[in-house]
Amino acid sequence: MLPAYVLLDLETTGATPVKDRITEIGLVRYENGMEVKRWQTLVNPEMHISAFIEGITGIDNTMVKDAPLFTEVAHELLEYLHGAVLCAHNVRFDHGFLKSEFKRLGISLRQKVLCTVKLSRRLYPEHKSHGLDAIIARHGIHCGARHRAMGDVEVMEAFLDIAAAEHGVQQLQAAAQELLKSQSLPVGLDPKLLDDMPEGPGVYLFYGDNELPLYVGKSVNIRARVLSHFNSDHARAQGMRITQEVKHVEWMETAGEFGALLLEARLIKERQPIHNRQLRRERQLCSWQLSETALQAPLLTLVNQDEMQPETLGHLYGTYRTKRQAIGALRQIAEANNLCSQWLGLETGKGPCFSHQLKRCKGICCGQEAPELHYLRLKQALISHQLKSWPYPSKLGIRETSDTLGKSVIHVFEHWCYLGSVEDEAELDSMRSTRLAFSFDIDTYKLLLKELGKSRAKTLLL
Length: 462
Known about the structure:
Blueprint: E1 4-12, E2 22-31, E3 34-42, H1 51-57, H2 61-64, H3 70-81, E4 85-88, H4 91-104, E5 113-115, H5 116-123, H6 132-139, H7 149-167, H8 169-181, H9 193-196, E6 202-207, E7 213-219, H10 222-230, H11 237-245, E8 248-253, H12 257-271, E9 286-290, E10 300-304, E11 316-320, H13 323-337, H14 354-357, H15 371-382, E12 396-402, E13 407-414, E14 417-422, H16 425-432, H17 442-452, E15 458-461
Parallel strand pairs: 1-4, 4-5
Antiparallel strand pairs: 1-2, 2-3, 6-7, 6-8, 9-10, 9-11, 12-13, 12-15, 13-14
């Protein structure tokens, strides 16, 4: 399949590399299509194996009690991996654990990887499931030790043999090479970036020849998203320009996707990258403010973003980039709901409005409709565009926890404004006493509104 590759599987105490440990390693090394080495060992994880994990793997605390520590097998494992592509089923899992274990020893693991799940998807796209159990059932593979390291490696061996027989060795090799190619960086970028780039959530920044970023993006998997920029077909010219101009990549990890979204929005507004158009919002937004009574004319007044205040948000409707866009949207609402363009402030003059002459206004402008009824119909027509008042008596925190980073972060808001993120009680106490300089931002408003709509959002009043 490849000049040199290692089929590997790990058993572990859990699913989180930063806190869980390896309990078993199984691998087979191939060179030029021939098996050259086969190795397996239990590993003392130096922590308790739960009954749940024992039930899955069959590995208990007694079995690993006298097994070697990872530090005792690390050198031998590196020799097996040297110069080879690491192949595993869901390789991110196994690679992540190996990187964490070696990191504890002060070693930075730099290994090309190939995922046999992705290989299965590429060779057998007609099938929905590509887990080991699905592959076993699909191809009738015998597995005498499922969820043991060498047993699962032997399933991968059998799958590759079947794939080579059904598709041919050349097609199998081509599929593997394509997957490896998708993990490469363009010439000019340091290939060591791949070794350090995290596979968790955060924000990444592309730089050209100066200190101003070309582009800021976010992802739940920074590594995969950055690589996708350099390995897509670039149907849009902008994508091609970005990849051609990039000379340097930086990233910032976050506790989760919400934190990444907040950080992305803030960095784009602060640094104004040339290729981020949607979130830059260089112009001020405007919104329609509804009068407090049915007899106040005009019923709607256009207010700019810097005029918005916390107490008036519930009386604002829609957000628009320009006055022209706001007027156009209001005209559509008026026509769809038979509202008076004079009373809305879209038309000047006295007597029947132009819309009434076209039978598109129910006649408040000529005494045929009561102002209170017209006002009620206007409020009903605007309800889907209404901005929400701040529903909390104080500041609000949303907790986001990262098992990968091993930390918990609280994102703090007040009146829909993002005040910052804190990691400890001292920072949180300081944030509680911070006075808000209100500045409405529609992107933060939408992000927070969406997050609060999720049942998993962990909120706390501050």
